[in-house]
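User: Predict the full complex structure for these chains.
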Amino acid sequence: MNSYHKNILVVEDDPQIRNFICYSLKQAEFRYITAHTAQDALSHLISEQIDIMLLDLGLPDFDGMDVIKKVREWSDLPIIVVSARDQDSEKAAALDLGADDYLTKPFSATELMARIRVAVRHLHMHGKENQQGALTVGGLTIEMDKHLVYLHNKELHVTPMEYSLLSLLFKNIGKVLTTSAILKEIWGVGYGNDTQALRALMAGLRRKIEKNPAKPRYIITEIGVGYRLVDE
Amino acid sequence: MNRRDKARMVVQPLLVVGLLSISSGIGYAFHFSEFPETNIVITYLLAVHMIAWLTEGFLWGLLSSVIATFLFNFFFTEPYLTFSVNDPSYIITFFIMTVVALITSTIASHAQKSALDARQKETETKAVYNLTNHLTDASNINDIVGFTVGEISTCFGCRAACLCFDENGNSERFFIQQQTESRQVRREIENPEEIKRRMEQLKTGYEIGSEFYDWPIYGYEKMLGMIRIPIKTAQTMSAAQTRLLRSMIESVALAMDRLRASELHNRSREETVQERYRANLLRAISHDLRTPLSGIMGTSEMIMDMSTQTDPRYDLASAIHKDADWLHSLVENILSLTRLQEGKLILNKQPEAVEEVLAGAIERISKQWPEYEIDVSMPDELLMIPMDAKLIRQVLINLLDNAIKHTLPDGDIHISVEKDENSHFAVFKITDSGSGISQEDLPHLFQMFYTSRTQIADAKHGIGLGLTICDAIIKAHGGTIEAKNRNDRTGAEFTFTLPMEVQMYEQLS
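Assistant: Here is the predicted structure of the two-chain assembly.
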């Protein structure tokens, strides 16, 4: 994958962290621009071609949440939140506002790069979103147009609910989906809080696709936040 | 019977005798002056009217009506000084005189009684008003008790007292009694439980003790206290006074209830504010520690990346990274511990899938220690247990971390979850194949800041907080945690349990 063409906006006010993020990006041959404030970030977003944004929530002028809100008004570029805030509610709020991923400080460069690569792949998939073809992760394949799921090339029987859950995760591959977002998509508005039903549905699906649900290969739980379909 | 009643019993007959004697005297004067007898009759009627007006009740009025007629008969009709009469027409005079006297005395008594009633009502209203007025201004329970005791004492002319019950309905140790008009004293009670028990069993309106009659103050939900009236006063209280006391107690109950409610409201508001303040502080600390740690870890990672593994700088950077990482887990643990040790931790408890929490812990550990393989066994069916998932994950991470630190990479580390159907507990077991726990460490494992003495060189990596936190978290969930050495081979085995259902009580450490 040619990452060199991707331009990444790093919004971070702490110089140490900014340095090390930039170093890691440079090592991986990304181009990047830095911004120290929310104002700065917004003007960069308007004037330049940005592919991915890394966003710290605690900025000196505005809260990062407001930045997400603003950006989502006109753009759907991938936003990876990098924050020292570790409250589940804040993670969920950022994700529900439209952030694609959330990384809690302190994090390792490897972790960050993995998340950025997921976002890049997303960019490539972008535009083919309505594609009705087959999507594959490891041994797991879903055929959207035929409503079929294959595990290691063998057809896997799933219930309609399990299918909608899996296809939702596939459509947002690599991205954390909050519990409330999944509930809204699958059960519809009004079932907002029945997380138990989702847990049970997820347990059923995992028993079909995972060898060991305690060491999941495909669907990872972000405790207190939501679920993510692993993308590699 | 009190002194006032006795006095009345003496004064009233004297009044009757006196007034009737005076009117008899005036009658004699009229008789000798040869005024018509009508004047004498009128004089007697006046005396009867006055007697009815000045005495209480109907008795004396009625009695004096009859006596007046007989006196008239005795002194002023022929033959004099006998109860016989020569002229039969006097019978009519006697009859009419008696009837008129009776009617007059009844009317007078009625009027007197209504006046008395009105006066009493006024006193009652005034007393209750005074009390209520003061109670509205009261800002604490002592004010209420003070006003109440003072007002009741004044109203009933006694040394009344008041005993409060606390919020749990238990009696307090002291009651307040009016000593003199301007002085109140605290007196200790001998047996609060006994008083409470007696009050709870109360069927009548009051309880008769050796020194006091105790009138309970019933609040909206429970008994708030009692008013104690000295036995002598209580025995002579009229129905009207009892009624007055009841309505005063009712006002007191209302005031106490109002105060309790506002106290409760204030306290919960204060707690909310404190809770928010504490949460903000913890969040700020956590945030401010994470930011520099992130810089240190990231930068050391960067240096490691820049240097080859044979470069001594690589080792230095790696050591910095390890230490920062250790600091990070210490910070996490201290934060959880502060949350727990406040004793007020509100567990964010909801049914969680055990497999998800296990996976969360294993994922974290595997990232940190990729060279270790962790073996998992758990029931096939979905196991949902009410818990605070983040805290239980922290327990699992601490225990797994501990296991890894005592085991070589090729050794086996096993984690298992089982359901104990009998006790309705889920049993988590983490075993390692390390050197095990020394006998002298075993009793102190879960104590705060205890690090093994047998491993001084490596003491830092015992953290010393990890297991304390596990202990606190599990206890807060109503479970148990214990450590022992494996029977089958060397190695340690940590077991903790979590109740499968939400328990009514939360045991806080």
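Chain B touches chain A at residues 283, 286-288, 290-299, 301-302, 305, 324, 328, 350-353, 355-360, 362-363, 367, 374, 376, 378, 380, 382, 384, 389-390, 393 (CB under 8 Å).
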